[in-house]
Amino acid sequence: MRFLPLDKLINVQEGYRKRFKIDSTDLILSKENDQIVAFGAVCPHQEQSLEEGHIEGGVIYCPRHQFAFSLETGQHTAGHCRPLPIYEVHYEGNEVGILLES
Ligand code: FES
User: How remote is the CA of residue 87 from the centroid of ligand 1, in Å?
Assistant: First the structure.
């Protein structure tokens, strides 16, 4: 696994949400309810951007058709859509990022 730094930890305050496109990885880093999560930037249903998705109770709701995906597993809560990619958040020094397969 290799660490891909995304931002300085001090910048990631409550309500933070930012999209990153790095090579073939397109993801959103977000902090809501005191929890930092990283997930795929587009909905697996019809590729709506999740930048405006509502997060509540560990789930993100796509703004287009309101499909809900677990931010822990990426699974669609109703089970009939492909999962949303979830990335492992990692910290090194004063930076926060994700772990990627090497
Ligand atoms: S595009 Fe996200 S639920 Fe349909």
Answer: 20
User: The domain that contains 7 carries what CATH number?
Assistant: 2.102.10.10
CA 49 to centroid of ligand 1, rounded, Å: 9
Strand partners, 31: 36
User: Tokens representing 67?
Assistant: 């499909």
The pTM of the whole model exceeds 0.90: yes
For residue 72, give its domain range: 2-100
pLDDT, tens only, 42-101: 999 999 999 999 999 999 999 999 999 999 999 999 988 999 999 999 999 999 999 998
Distance CA 62, CA 65 (A): 6
Domain count for the chain? 1
